[in-house]
Amino acid sequence: MLPINRPVRIATRDGRNVRGRRLNEDTYSVQIIDAEERLMSIAKSDILRMEVETTSPMPAGKDSMTPEEIADLLAYLLTLRQP
Amino acid sequence: MIGSAGVRGATRLLAVMLAVGWTASGHAQITFDRLRGASAEPQNWLTYSGGYASQRHSLLRQIDRGNVRNLELKWVLPNQVAGAWQSSPLVVDGIMYVTQRPNDVLAVDAKTGRAFWHFRHTVSPDARVCCGANNRGLAMLGDTLFMGTLDGRLVAIDAKSGRSLWNVAVGNPAHGYSLTMAPLAVKDKILVGVGGGEYGIRGFIAAFDPQSGRELWRFHTIPGPGEPGHDTWRGDAWKTGGGSIWLTPSYDPALNLTYWGVGNPGPGWNADQRPGDNLYTESVVAVDADTGALKWHFQFTPNDTYDFDSVQVGVLADLTWRGRPTRALLWANRNGFFYVLDREDGRFLSGTPFVKVNWASGLDSRGRPIPTPQPPGQPTWPGNQGGTNWYSPSFSPRTGLFYVSVWEDYASVFRKEPSTYVAGRNFPGGGHTPVSPVPGAPVVRIGRTSPINDWTDAVGHGAVLALDPHTGQTRWRFDHYDVTDSGILTTATDLLFTGGREGHFHALDARTGALLWKVSLGGQIVNGPITYAVGGAQYIAVISGNSLYAFALRD
């Protein structure tokens, strides 16, 4: 995951807590997509606190599947590739 | 006494003026006296940097800290050519003259943005430029505009008709010589310098007769055999030694000296091929405006291996230095140090890092860096694009502060490679890789080509710093998320205007750095804003992306 696209937690000055994935950022604002796939642009002047997480919100799952199941999953994913 | 014939002539002239709807303010030729006294007519912007001292500081006062929030867009001039628009316009008696890629000139009404004429120079296919089809502007003297071209020529253009008056060769484009800087008119001469440092040119500065285009003198930034400084080269390395000129010099009329920033040596990253200090690369040279004779030089980065072109605009400021009136030259260098020099003799007064620096541990008592080259593969601060670069700083005599756009937290890993000189081909001698804290993540690149930022401020970000020349310390800072290539304008009402790659254009309080106004223009701002007045209104003009925007207070 690119650093610019890492998960962020934002607490706004009006009391909202937002979690999402950062899509873009500049001096005055940050653009994210939240867990409900809502696109949000938040002015930094409205942000009380913003934390950038270095781990993915996806569950790791590496111990919950056997090597054969992982191979099957990969094979399935490869079938989704566009011709 | 005016005779009747004269009255009839004047009446006819007035009738013609009215018939063609001529409404511009009084037109007068640009003389050396007007250029020397540019600050006394702040309604105009007569040189690249607004005046010979290159302070980019205007005495206009209509827009101030109290009303700047009432700025509104008055007009837009779109450019039909893509790419970084680095030009800084001139404004003369209500007419704006601006260059656009590759070598066009437009004359527009500074009040409405409507064009009077459009001059096009067809660039030779022989032209070679390392870093884009850039042109930074014009000079004007009399009724003539002067523009350097990418194919190494100097062109004189009639400011009224937009027609070419003459067009002369300055350097051979097939060997990499180009002109990207705005020329400077001094007395009866037009001064230019050549680009092409990445092509192994032998750089020079030259003066031309504004009437005929005849070359009047030439100063080589790489001294030849028998000339002072030649012994800082070994063998034939001087022949391909680089030393390009990108930016308009400053000029002190009292000393009759022009101050030129000189670019990198060739090949840029491999000093093994050019042992020695490599004068006058990475230096400022003080050159007599009448003769081209070198008065003094100061080298910022001897035997450079980092591409720390010293092409910045040096700013003239009269200071009381340690209790003595001093004609100072202020210089924030790409190598990360902010220098104060005595511009009469080039004496080093102080040098202070303004960003993180690890290629040198400091400067000695004469201003020579104490080198601390990093092991191969390790990061060097500042990185290849430097702590700052070619974009113009500003100095406000009111605040006594020097304002500069900088890149922070930005480093590169440099590498050297053997390079063979072939005329007209790139002659790099190595390269560099910007450093990212996350391996493989996108890093800062040259220019902004997408509205999506794919790097974070961790790999480098911009800031405006307000530096105190007396201490070298930062009085205040204004941080950008992305890096910035924007120049800076200050005014007599303590406003500071600047932009950045994100396309935001901001007005700051020059005393505190507080944000007073901003507008999102969208496209990268890679030039210096200017200000002027026409029809009783003060305007602020800035280029963002492919358009030039003019703002004034709400009617």
Backbone CA Rg of chain B: 23 Å
Average residue pLDDT of chain B: 94
Per the principal axes of the C-alpha atoms, what is the gross shape of chain A? Answer: elongated
**Whole-Å distance between the termini of chain A?**
25 Å
User: Strand-and-helix sequence of chain A, N→C?
Assistant: EEEEEH
Structural class of chain B: mainly beta
| Major sheet size, sense and barrel closure of chain B | 5 strands, mixed
Average pLDDT confidence of chain A is: 90
Please give the oligomerization state of what you see: heterodimer
The counted number of beta strands of chain B is 37
Most extensive chain-chain interface = A-B, 9 and 19 residues
**Total count of helical runs of at least 4 residues of chain A:** 1
What fraction strand of chain A?
35-45%
Q: Strands across the major sheet of chain A, in which order?
A: 4-3-2-1-5
What is the helix fraction of residues of chain A, given as a range? Answer: 10-25%
Indicate the proportion of strand residues of chain B. 35-45%
Rg of chain A, rounded, reads 17 Å
Can you give me a brief rundown of this structure?
Helices cover 16% and strands 39% of the residues of chain A. With 83 residues, chain A is α+β, with helices and mostly antiparallel strands. Chain A has a five-stranded antiparallel sheet, with no helix packed on it.
Keywords summarizing the entry:
heterodimer; A: 83 residues; alpha+beta; five-stranded antiparallel sheet; 5 strands; B: 555 residues; mainly beta; five-stranded mixed sheet; 4% helix; disordered N terminus
Report on this structure.
Helices cover 16% and strands 39% of the residues of chain A. Chain A has one helix spanning 67-79; strands at 7-12, 17-25, 29-34, 39-43, 47-52. In chain A, a hairpin with a 4-residue loop joins strand 1 and strand 2 (17-25). The longest helix of chain A has 13 residues, at 67-79. The relative contact order of chain A is 0.19. Chain B has two helices and 37 strands. A five-stranded mixed sheet of chain B has the order 1-31-32-33-34, with no helix packed on it. Chain B has a four-stranded antiparallel sheet with strand order 2-37-36-35, with no helix packed on it. In chain B, strand 15 and strand 16 (257-261) form a beta hairpin. Chain B starts with a helix and ends with a strand. At the A-B interface, strand 2 of A face loops of B.
